[in-house]
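re: that chain from earlier
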Amino acid sequence: MATAVDASKNRPSDARNREVVFPEGRDPQRGNLETPINASPLVKWYINALPAYRPGHTPFRRGLEIGMAHGYWLFGPFAKLGPLRDTANANLAGLLATLSFVVILTGCLSLYGNSNPPQPHVTVTTPNPPDAFRSKEGWNGFASAFLIGGVGGAVVAYFLTSNWGLIQNLFG
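^ sequence. v structure.
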């Protein structure tokens, strides 16, 4: 077995001798790696299509879209897995818990934005980071929109789950 491994070290056609992880830009001083995952076109497309990295949006629009998604999907675990899940007020308890959590997350975003965070930097996956997160005003606009979107997403999820029977009767 050991002789087979030693013999394969000199064959470039052996898959074990192919390098797949390189320093970013082939510069070992950068401190980041290009792997088959983070350097693939599919992953680059997906990451750059997310609201935080999508080009041409204001910080308010980014925060609104991210907040709506978080408010909507955070409602489910609080309502359906919370301690009041088997009661008549489970959806209301889930809504209140989600709203509380969105307020806490907004506070965390505001604190981070006011702590003079580091500037976004270029990576293999995000070659053009947005300018929205380069200032305190950008972070505060993002945080306020996150609050509005989070509250809106949670309320929409609450009304959908509370009126699910009515919705089924209308369309089904």
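The first strand starts at residue 22 and ends at 23.
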